[in-house]
Amino acid sequence: MNLIVQGNDIPTPHLKALAKLTGAAAIEAVSRTAFRLVAANDGPRAEVAAFCEANALDHGWVPAERRIRDFGLLVMDMDSTLITIECIDEIADMQGLKPQVAAITEAAMRGEIDFAESLRRRVSLLEGLDQSALQRVYDERLQLSPGAEFLLAAARAAGIRTLLVSGGFTFFTERLKPRLGLDFTAANTLEVAGGRLTGRVLGTIVDAQGKADWLNRVREQLGLRPEQVIAMGDGANDLKMMAQAGISIAYRAKPVVRTQASYALNHVGLDGVIPLLG
Q1: Structural domain total, the chain
Q2: pLDDT tens digit sequence for 120-162
Q3: What is the mean pLDDT of the chain?
Q4: Average pLDDT over residues 33-44
Q5: Which active-site residues does the annotation give?
Q6: At residue 143, what are phi and psi to the nearest 5 degrees?
Q7: How far, CA to CA in Å, does 90 sit from each of 93, 96, 109, 169, 268?
Q8: What is the reported pTM?
Q9: CA distances (Å), 189 to each of 45, 121, 257, in order?
Q10: Between vectors from CA 187 to CA 164 and to CA 153, what angle results, nearest 5°?
Q11: Same domain as 72, residue 61
């Protein structure tokens, strides 16, 4: 195994301590924020995890034979994963309702409320909002997560297709698709009448099972095996999707997601996914 260690500022003594703990044969710089400890003994996994947590480092055990070109599909959540905001919370802010909506969002992401029910409750609070608020959120508040464009460029270079699947809204996914060169997108559609939101969602809600179904639908369309898929998210409604992938990555995620993912990135940006792919 190789041990990937990532952080915004990794002191050399920390790397040497981990190399000693794991008996690594060498320390290689992968990027400014990532290092590879070559031929590391993964016996002391608990000790390595404790050391990294105590020193604000991300880490991951990667089979030495793994290569990025082994993968064919990268599936991403949108809100608080590919982008830094929860779009519905920012839309609600236009109504002066952000605290109420954000509280429901948080409970849903922790797995305390059924996602579909939580979405209906949140969208109902937006009834009467002018449709222009959606464009304002996109223009004024939507930002990509750090490292997002670097990750997508690396995926394209390796021939990996991309699927953005969101419990959020098509208004945003359809704008991000051409902007970022994404191959596939799926999300929920807000009903609009007379230029205003009706407080309802059209069609079947893309919930946890919906995300998993989209992953499998695109994977089968591309003729890929489950182990060739990478899935990435932050909330409880991403867990079913992540369970269908060969590698799952929790990005700045809720505890329930971090404990079930293959890897967790809590300190570095989305470009931290790349060293984990070999």
Answers
A1: 2
A2: 999 999 999 999 999 999 999 999 999 999 999 999 999 999 9
A3: 96
A4: 97
A5: 77, 79
A6: -130, 145
A7: 5, 10, 16, 12, 24
A8: 0.94
A9: 44, 15, 26
A10: 15
A11: no
Among residues 253, 255, 257, the alpha carbon closest in space to that of 243 is found at 257
Whether the per-residue pLDDT at 113 is higher than 90: the answer is no
56 shares its domain with 77? no
- Domain holding 20: CATH number? 3.30.70
Same domain, 106 and 210: yes
Q: Please name the amino acid found at residue 238.
A: D
Same domain, residue pair 60 and 165? no
pLDDT band, residue 94 (cuts 50/70/90): confident
- For residues 93 and 218, membership in a common domain is answered with yes
Domain identity same for 232 and 277:
yes
Domain coverage including residue 156: 68-278
